[in-house]
Design a protein that fits this description.
Ammonium transporter fold; 421 residues; mainly alpha; globular; homotrimer
Chain lengths: 421, 421, 421
């Protein structure tokens, strides 16, 4: 292929995959707003639009350079007011001689930026789901700013940015650990600091059921995420510049789909013995967990292994949802099970199935976990100190929508009152 | 164009169109979950995610090879544990010499697989809509497995796989018959075996109105389907390797859109005399029927003919919905009218408008109809024998959601009771 | 790059961006159907599907040629039954010698048509939001036909079609004025002629609050619009034929995203002092306004300017919503503020930030405003004369859904009665 054609296709594929990954934010929003009580559905919507807006700015202002530019071992640099390279500006200004220098980069500078930016938001979306219905709106936004400006970029610098984990040979193709476990650890820290929803875990040891309030909307969210994952994993090939990329991306999309299928089937089958019924939310989460699990190595496992990796991921998610209930850790949408537990599994599975250094994988999982969990704990504690993290019992009773936004999500529908609050 | 550029673009277009066709599953889900009673909305969501997961696995394990590999006249072969070709594996393994052999194929092996796989799910989605609110969850899943592993692949082998209908010269560009009528026949067989919803056709001859329960969600489904259809028809050019493909796909997308416009306008105009009012569901179905009708030949008809083919499709759909009511065949979303009736029309229309052998088209329509209908009848009867196909009257009364899943789709909203059950 | 590769990529990018822009219709539909009272949600859905169907036909039959073919200064020509060029038909018919002439055009004829067609619908969608809940269904459809066949194409002929404003040097890359302000002016004219919803502005000077009836659906609409805007602006580069296009489109997508982020953040921050609370709808509209504002020049402003342009756009929108309330102009979704006010700002901003003739920008804004507003006023007045524009008070009371369509959007949910009607 001509070098210019490669450049165009590399850049274009970053952008079109990036647009589909941005769309995953809508998927998380639908999944979460359909899962919460109706009285908190507006706030979770605003949190999700807000986190995408904040992540887009912080990653531009701080995160991108920390993650990618001048990373030595631990962290990159700091620069504001950046953008296209001088060569690209010259080219756009009409200096055709600059084209050669531009082409050297393989893709346009900001197409890569765009692709990396949409990944950040995913990490934050995981947190919003777990902490729904009791974390304060503006406290959550502050956490998102820290997560997307610092915590995620540091993990990214260690790995995709070329830092110490990358140099050790840590394998995580599209981010089972780097994106999904990072989000999961941040969510877990938040769940511990913020605490469970009032009344979720009763004094008699029983658990208050909190089924989704709007199932079609939850299901839409699952489809959006499944769709967007093709871009998430396929785009992580980071190029479309020849026959190797085309073959690799094709295999990636097929494996991504098979793993999701496997995750769904395993979870729906397991849900009956574990939850006593064909459980819709566990089944749907199983598909997500299958997707998370394959994300560490969709390019190098055989197709039948993708089914198995996904199925194990779906099973782990179902079991994890049950385990977190036992531990009285309140995760509204099951995000910790689907993203953290299945993410750990996926990071190990790629190595078990396709070869590599399992010890390095374990080191990566532990290092990222230790860093993200402790940094998140610290952040949550500081936020609690400065502005509080949790709404009052009265807000929980009346709903965040009415108190924090002055509206209801469905103001015209007659809603059943929650007898426990 | 360079051969490698052609390969990359062919593969990439299969994938990106395929992602948009997968998205149509979300469209069917929204259309259906917004059309059913709220008490059955969760189950229809789970059915639709499940059918996509099942179709993805059965088509991998059985269907694809039956449909495409080694088809003589009637059917292909059987093989498991397949994937990328040996040449592609060698190339990915670093053997650059394998590139020439890989390029020979024109596109990556699994990009074609991915594109074909997403078509299968569409066929199943048609069935789920017709049979909503009374077919049992697991019985439906078993039918989907048979449909996607055997019934659809046999039809596909006869036609796109190069079998006897293809050799006769049967024209069906993107599947008015092969996909949509196949789904429609399977749905019709199911509707006959499973029977109408209790109370739908009253003893006094009147019909119980069952309008959509959530119109915005239905409308969202229509937009998703309309959007996905551009990929469904455009991608069926099966290549993006040069000027001919680019011109053809452009015409295809324009015709696809004009036919949908024509179908909508005709249906909304006809709905008033036929149903006594501007009928929302009939109008929206008219757009779908226009899309189905153009699907057999979007590449070869002139643009004004596309409008007319779509308009006739929309009219047939509206009349068909009325006719099925008269025949007391209960089709919850009008899928038989939109997909089967308009699919037959489209398969004839391409030949009437653009030339070809009308007799062959009739033979194809009848052969596919006879095979799919009888195979589906047989499958439904066997399922009925083995595990039952229909929920009890009590389940119909309380809703499938509560009984089969233990949840409600909208548990917090106060819902009007159905006085007839 | 080879000429044929350029042709293929130019055409393909028109199509794939076009599909994503068509998807914005679904975004407007969700935004609007979630914003209206539940009793009018079905009609607004049907209006939106209908406007896309109508726009697709009128732009084919009349609008496209008026806008683009043979434009001298004011307006193009009139032709029906057009389509692919003679060269393209020859090529598709097997005449390989025609390829050279086809390639001369740079892209396939109908890929450009498709891309232009989806822009038209956006303009109409703006109108439907403002006038929701009281404009009659068929009167609205007639207005859409006039807007898409004549009014928008005339504006387009002056500018993108090469007419007098283009010759003056008017800058409006993707349509802050041409698309968004045009829609906004048409909506404003309609709001004046049709009048406010009954009871919205009370005799005591207070304003009846009419918050969204379904917030998750509104939020989904915002995400769809944000997503589609990448295509709206990125596709307006009108080519993907080399390194310059790839670099430009990358910058465009980044600026588009940053402006939306800036618009959201500014609006959510401003909403508290202006509306007395963190206002969800104002915040979401702020993102839209940021997108509208950057649309006039996403290709030529620096990234930090994109943030600022978007933030100012979001602020203007928030203030505009308050101002229109004071003027007692009833805009159900805030479309006039988001599209007209922010569109004017964006058209000025591109010139302020990136250079150009500010006077020409003002002339363009005024000329388009004067033409669209007066032509729309005339059209609305004629429609009022011929068939009426406004539903009766009784229809407002019972809802358009029941009276105009004979259905309800959510027939099973128990709905609170509006005490004011």
């Amino acid at each position: 292929m001509a070098q210019e054609t490669q450049f165009v296709l590399n850049s274009f594929s970053f952008l079109i995959w990036g647009v589909l990954i941005m769309w995953m934010c809508a998927g998380f929003t639908m999944l979460e707003s359909g899962s919460v009580r109706t009285k908190n559905a507006s706030v979770i919507c605003l949190k999700n639009v807000g986190l995408y807006a904040i992540a887009g700015l912080t990653f531009y202002l701080v995160g991108y350079n920390l993650m990618y530019v001048g990373v030595d071992n631990l962290i990159g640099g700091f620069r504001i007011f950046y953008g296209t390279s001088a060569e690209e500006q010259a080219l756009l200004g009409g200096d055709a001689a600059a084209a050669a220098a531009v082409l050297e980069n393989g893709n346009s500078v900001m197409s890569d930026w765009f692709f990396q930016m949409v990944f950040v938001a995913t990490t934050s979306s995981i947190v919003s789901g777990t902490l729904a219905e009791r974390v304060r709106l503006w406290s959550f936004f502050v956490f998102v700013a820290v997560l997307t400006a610092f915590i995620y970029p540091v993990v990214g610098a260690w790995t995709w940015g070329g830092g110490w984990l990358d140099q050790l040979g840590f394998q995580d193709f599209a981010g089972s650990t780097i994106v999904h476990s990072t989000g999961g650890w941040a969510a877990l820290a938040g769940a511990i600091i913020v605490g469970a929803r009032h009344g979720k875990y009763r004094e008699d040891g029983s658990i208050k059921p909190t089924p989704p309030s709007n199932v079609p909307v939850v299901t839409l969210g699952i489809f959006i995420l499944w769709m967007g994952w093709f871009a998430f994993n396929g785009g992580s090939q980071l190029a479309l510049s020849g026959v190797v990329d085309a073959v690799a991306i094709s295999n990636i999309l097929v494996n991504t789909n098979l793993a999701a299928c496997g995750g769904f089937i395993a979870a729906i089958a397991l849900s009956r013995p574990i939850f006593g019924r064909t459980d819709l939310l566990a089944s749907l989460n199983g598909a997500i967990a299958g997707l998370v699990a394959i994300t560490a190595g969709p390019d190098i496992v055989d197709h039948y292994w993708a089914i198995i990796i996904g199925a194990v991921g779906g099973s782990i998610c179902t079991l994890g949802m049950k385990m977190l209930e036992r531990l009285r850790i309140d995760d509204v949408v099951g995000a910790i099970s689907a993203h953290l537990f299945a993410g750990i599994w996926g990071t190990l599975a790629v190595c078990i199935v396709a070869g590599g250094n399992l010890l390095v994988q374990v080191v990566g999982i532990l290092a990222v976990g230790a860093f993200v969990f402790s940094a998140s704990m610290l952040t949550w504690v500081v936020i609690r100190k400065l502005m509080g993290v949790r709404v009052t019992l009265d807000v929980e009773r009346h709903g965040q929508d009415v108190v924090e936004l002055g509206i209801e999500a469905y103001p015209e529908f007659v809603v059943l009152q929650d007898p426990d609050l």
